[in-house]
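Folds vary. Our protein:
___
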Amino acid sequence: MLPGDLLASLPSGRAVIGDGAESSDGAAFSRRVADLVTALRARRFPHAPVALLADNSPHWVSLDLAAALCGVTLVPLPGFFTPQQRAHAIRESGASALCCADAALADALGFGRRAGDTLFEADAAPQGPVLAPGSKLTFTSGTTGEPKGVCLGAEQQWRVASAVARELSAIGVQRHLCLLPLSVLLENVGGVYAGLLCGATVICPPLAEVGLSGSSGFDAAVCVAAIARHRPHSLILLPQMLQSILPLLQPHDPRLASLRFVAVGGARTPPALLDAAAAMGIPVFEGYGLTECGSVVALNTPSANRRGSVGRALAHRSLRISDAGEIEVGGGAFGHYLGEQPLADEWISTGDLGHLDADGYLFIDGRRKNVLITGFGRNVSPEWPESLLCGHPAVMQALVTGDGRPYLVALLAPSGPDVGDDDLARAVAAANAALPDYARIGAFAVLPEPLSPANGLATPNGRPRRALIAERHAALVNSLYRE
């Protein structure tokens, strides 16, 4: 199903989208989208890409669908991007218009001509690549700080949403609450699109109302209060969000009683964290995805869930493991990086190491490029000890390094201000007890500040940017190696 078919199928008289304070039924939402289609077509350059810089809201979703209906490329700009990253994305995409509520910000980005309440245009004709009609240009954090644009067609995104929607429908999801920025493909496709397709009401309040602020701030108490207030059946969390929420809860906490399906993804989730959440009565299910695949690739569900895995492939995808142990995804229809040709292969390499069990469940073993070779010649994926460390209540983040060194060391971010060195030492000891000698942590230090998109040391999904961390904290790492 594509956006036009979706809008035609939305029911009148029942809320389909809202921000928690007001909601729209299918007819009102379709009219809102139609008005935006008219505004987009009335631009000076009606076929040029449109950038979108806005907080979560039904308006964000409306413009997203309107752009697809117009055959216009949409360029979502994450709110956590720096001014330089925003300017880079706009320049690379050739966007001629910007949807933004802040006129001064729009003007600073080169869009000084008002064309609607929140729509601004540039004076000069757009100069950029030729993109497929109705595509979405999603910029991910590059390892050098310059975001990389991934082009995804409408059909690629909606195939993923349809596959996820089938799972949500089987669970009986009727209300989905958006906790992640809509500029993140996981929430955009796996949350909003899938929710609308399965007939759920999608609730997308401003991010501050669900506990998110700036690039990495998260108030777990505000998030729990929002879940209690909106009573969703489903939501999507990043591992760090789940870890922050758990200490605030009681077993089978009534504030989360409405939940039927909580997807955890975006970064590797420690099995101990999933076990702790399940013990509290939270229906947590880990998944796995790639931007190039339109987001979700594999997913655990209530009817097919295996501990430690990220689930089985969605209906339109296939999985296999190469001779080198790398996960490969099949099914075609992949996105491609801006400036590169669309992928013609039926299989793509993910860069992730993993294995499949006899029933087709996928297990992630680490990133191929991250493998450390110790001074004694043993190969170790740092994600392995990191996962064990982050499964301990005292540790919020862990970065393990030691390539070519006699032993591995860890840089740790404590889970709270009351966590001391003794607590972290116990966490390291617990992880080491589950590791072979060559993968154990020989020493640790506390990070001067947590890894976050704000300081450039983590991606928006919480993955560590290892090369930059190694460069910035080289002295700290070197201090952990004794003569």
In short: The chain has three domains: 3-152, 155-368, 371-478. The chain has 14 helices and 28 strands. The chain has a mean pLDDT of 91.
